[in-house]
Specification:
The chain has about 350 residues and is an alpha/beta fold. The chain has eight helices and eleven strands. Helices cover about 30% and strands about 15% of the residues.
Length: about 350
């Protein structure tokens, strides 16, 4: 997207100032990362080098053959071009040498534009505001150049132009609860069962390639947000399976809910792999409040029950079995989620 603030207006007669340009505000959600990036290249370095070489080869020999008068004429033309980049002159007027010297001194006195540090912001507070870039400063009208000898000079300064800046925005703060799990563990099914979200669901891995966010509405009108993070695989911290693209969404959820396929051969190992990948990606990430959703508890019969007991004994997290597809025991899961999220909000001073 491209944004441009409204420009100011020229001054008027009787020493009237022109209108200032309008501020431009861009509203972003909490949790957005704002980074300044380099201006895209519009031409190749090779082409620029060729053009520079042509200019150098064309001017060098020609300047050595010029007469003194021709050199002086070129100097005056270059001086006039330089002055016209800073000042505007009345039609048919160009200042005499004494006025030229005064204008050159004005240019030397002009403070250099403030070079702000590169933008790298992490928006984590509601109504947080930052100045990203300033507009150009206005120029001076001809009264600014009056002298006792010249009461109506045909000179006005141009001011400084505005600047353009390129920013990259990344939304990393997603929800109160982030669903983390291996591909096809049932995260999307669970999200669809408990919230207003409608993620894509299919019986094969990597159905979800971008986070889905839903809202859980409780009977007493209390709400919380929940995000379906795309599935992680072993080696995700090394960017396997688009690991970094998925992992960066995990770190901005207040609470983590590990969705484990209880019908698998070793669900406790799945939990171990998930926590290992999170910790290798960002140390301390697994210390966030969490619970384990033992999904697909309706499948597998006695082996599922045995897996549930082993899973409970392998972690200190609360383990809640459920069947997201059949909607069994999902309210027990959302009840535990609410308890944890409520405690986190109280700690933050948020209702």
């Amino acid at each position: 997207n491209s944004y441009r603030s409204q420009e100011g207006a020229p001054g008027g007669g009787k020493q009237k100032h022109g209108a200032n340009g309008r501020d431009l505000e861009i509203v972003l959600p909490v949790g957005t990362i704002v980074r300044q990036v380099d201006v895209p290249m519009r031409s190749s370095p090779e082409k620029d080098a060729e053009e520079d070489e042509e200019l150098d080869s064309g001017w060098g020999p020609y300047e050595r053959e010029l007469t003194d008068e021709e050199r002086e004429d070129i100097r005056k033309r270059k001086l006039e071009e330089m002055l016209r980049t800073h000042f505007k002159f009345r039609s048919g007027y160009f200042p005499q040498d004494d006025r030229v010297q005064m204008l050159l001194e004005r240019i030397m006195e002009t403070p250099k534009a403030y070079e702000a540090p590169r933008i790298n912001l992490d928006l984590m507070e509601h109504e947080e505001r930052h100045l990203i870039i300033r507009g150009g400063s206005g120029g001076y009208g001809n009264p600014h150049f009056m002298t006792p000898e010249i009461r109506g000079p045909g000179i006005a300064s141009r001011g400084s132009p505005g600047r353009a800046i390129y920013l990259e925005l990344e939304l990393k703060s997603i929800a109160d609860v982030g669903l983390v799990g291996m591909p096809n563990a049932g995260k999307s099914t669970f999200l669809g069962a408990v919230s207003n979200a409608h993620p894509r669901i299919a019986p094969y891995p990597f159905t979800t390639l971008n986070p889905y966010i839903g809202t859980i509405d409780y009977p007493d009108a209390w709400t919380m947000t929940i995000a379906d993070i795309p599935g992680l695989i072993e080696g995700a911290h090394r960017n396997r399976g688009l690991g970094h693209r998925f992992l960066r969404h995990v770190e901005r959820n207040d609470m983590l809910a590990y969705v484990i396929d209880l019908s698998g051969p070793a669900p406790w190992k799945d939990l171990e792999i998930l926590k290992k990948e999170l910790e290798l990606y960002k140390p301390g990430l697994t210390k966030r409040p969490s619970l384990v959703i033992a999904n697909k508890a309706d499948l597998g019969g006695t082996s599922t029950q045995r897996n549930l007991e082993i899973l409970k004994n392998s972690t200190r997290d609360v383990v809640v079995p459920c069947s997201a597809k059949e909607g069994k025991n999902v309210t027990a899961v959302t009840g535990v989620m609410r308890q944890i999220v409520t405690a986190l909000r109280r700690r933050k001073g948020v209702q």
